[in-house]
Known about the structure:
9% helix
Amino acid sequence: MNWKSPIPPLLLIVTFSVAACGHRRQESAPPPAPVTQAPSPTAPAPHVGQKGVTPKGVKWEVLRVGSGASPKAWDQVKVHYHGYFPDGRVFDSSVERGEPIVFGLNQVIPGWTEGVQLMQEGAKYRFYIPWLQAYGLEGRPPTIPPKQDLMFDIELIQVMP
């Protein structure tokens, strides 16, 4: 493949050993801003511009409503994404590479696993992921510094069979 970015194609993949290493301390994270809770299964359908926050502090905004299936934490998904720092600097983008990516939703940072489950196929959401739900205290040197909040625009193309 021809990568336009020096970053591996799925910078987001982390191993369970990193996620479970015990270095994360919940008490040191800034509290999430009160927005709204994630929609419940009985909540009305999402609408463009709707915003919320998950129980673990991942903020989300609906950019485009989808109408297909919603993934579970163990599903494989096909997505396009644009990853950037809160100041707007891009660190990874399948959009810029022109090739969507397929991965297990349980193989990525916790903020993705939690956030993408809110989506339906065809939807596009913007996520603000606090550092505790991203790469934590260690970061992902040299690209992602320690304690770095991240933002992603994610389009859920397909929940894989």
